[in-house]
Amino acid sequence: MLPITDHLLHFLGLEKTAFRAYAVSALLLSLLFSFFRLMLRFLRICWAFHNTCRRLHCFPQPPRNNWLMGHLGMYLPNEKGLQDEKKLLDKMHDVVLVWAGPVLPLLVLVHPDYIKPVLSASAAIAPKDDFFYSFLKPWLGDGLLLSKGDKWSRHRRLLTPAFHFDILKPYMKIFNQCTNIMHVSARAGPWEEGILGVTVWRSGSDKGLPEVCRPTPIHCLSCPLFQAKWRRHLGENSVASFDMFEHISLMTLDSLQKCVFSFNSNCQEKMSDYISAIIELSALVVRRQYRLHHYLNFIYYLSADGRRFRRACDIVHHFTTEVIQERRKALCQQGAEMWLKTKQGKALDFIDVLLLARDEDGKELSDEDIRAEADTFMFEGHDTTSSGLSWVLFNLAKYPEYQEKCREEIQEVMKGRELEELEWDDLTQLPFTTMCIKESLRQFPPVTLVSRRCTEDIKLPDGRIIPKGIICLVSIYGTHHNPTVWPDSKVYNPYRFDPDNPHQRSPLAYVPFSAGPRNCIGQSFAMAEMRVAVALTLLRFRLSVDRTRKVRRKPELILRTENGIWLNVEPLPPLGPEAPPRETQAPPLRAQAPPPKY
């Protein structure tokens, strides 16, 4: 019996009995044991953190603001932040240690030799980190982007056939069609009257946020203002200025909805609830990253943004689930063989392929699994492709000699055709256009970094060890701008990717679609769509940079800009046997163009 027991019973005004004395003693002992257990756990955490810090001493780090904030606020998601990151890369060329606050170390990898051990590790050893992707979970579920372990491996095997060339070839008609809609709309302006514009966030809801932490505005293209611009400027004048990000984003959404669901929403002419919800979800996820109190789910879902996020998720999930259930019902009623016969003459879409997929044990994907993969493909496919395409057109507008060389190449492929339509086999006949696209993806990668959490120690080429539990940020932007890998990295030079003059570089020096087991499964789809859109755009229009509007980069979920990418668009006469000849003489090519000015 503890000596303090008598005093405690007296203090509580309880009669001293043997049972009460022993009960109070047992309670005090259990509390004391729990306290020491918590202290022991805390000391173990402190000791593990001390050991981790000691093992991280071998990695260089830039000076911190202070011990509490670490490097937070030093590399902001804006143009200045990217410029500061480039200055840092000029001094540190492989691995950089940064601190997000006092207790969260992050290793930023910026060299091919150092990202290889992380990206080539299995998904079990270096899975994607939940901290950076958790906000997407309610929307995307356990799709390829967020799933782990055996589930990810199974889904990856089942989804791979959906991106086989035989499946992608019929999508070429969709790519052509969606690009044509954008171009024909640009020329003739067949917009419907009275369509209301939609803005994906409430005006004034960003008050109190620094300018750099406000999401990029995303408005609906069906706004009457934009309808008037297309009709007025390209209907009467020879040149008009348009924001490529907005128009191309709707074009890629239109294309994806047709490839994934075989559904035509006419979203390039009028906004649907489903497309509006996808755009809104992307913007809300970005905004949540910059509001620390919204990191807690119970606070976020009580806020206006959280309620809007739930509503948008419900709209997206309802649309996807409805399509899947209707298709599965038809498949069960008709049987696979008869169902496929009804599809003859039509392209199998993404949902069709997933419904027919079976693993080694003959098990199919559930409706929830298919929904997660479809939602993931819509999210990953439209934003990244629209970013990549917008930056390609920006670079070609900035360097007219490369634009003209691409145009000559495309005209040669299309010579003698009645229809301005690219086929699958034409893509291999566009080597210089492909070089321009690749160089643009190097200079402006749509996804600037990916994160991995090491579940085991990982050894680097120089013998240093990444400790277990550390979050690694594979900086795609940093690797693509590393001066030891890419000399004159600021210069836009498509000849870096000349297949006739290959450079001795690591395969991991160029990773716009990531690399390793968890690389982008849809990269062939994205490259095909980009080549079609670039080719048809240059065939019909001459592009130049709108010098009245500065282009300032802004990395969010993808690499955007603060105020869009505004290009001057000039229609060209149609290519055909009776068309007047075009001026195809290009100015002399420069081996290396001067770096872009922002």
Summed up:
The protein is α+β, with helices and mostly antiparallel strands and 598 residues long. The protein is built from 21 helices and eleven strands.
Total number of helices: 21
Label the structural class. alpha+beta
* Coarse shape: globular
Low-confidence stretches: 186-232, 580-598
Termini separation (Å)? 77 Å
| β-strand number | 11
Largest sheet: 4 strands, mixed
Name the strands of the widest sheet in spatial order.
Answer: 1-2-7-4
Mean pLDDT: 83
Task: Classify the helix fraction into a percent range.
Answer: 40-55%
User: What's the Cα radius of gyration?
Assistant: 28 Å
Tags for this model:
transmembrane helix; 598 residues; 3-stranded antiparallel beta sheet; Cyt_P450; 8% strand; 4-stranded mixed beta sheet; transmembrane; disordered C terminus
Question: Describe it for me?
Answer:
The structure is a single chain. With 598 residues, this protein is an alpha+beta fold. The protein contains 21 helices and eleven strands. A hairpin with a 3-residue loop joins strand 9 and strand 10 (559-561). Helix 12 (273-289) crosses helix 14 and helix 14 (304-334) crosses helix 15 (336-342). The radius of gyration is 28 Å and the shape is globular. The protein starts with a helix and ends in a 27-residue tail after the last strand. One of its GO terms (molecular function) is monooxygenase activity.
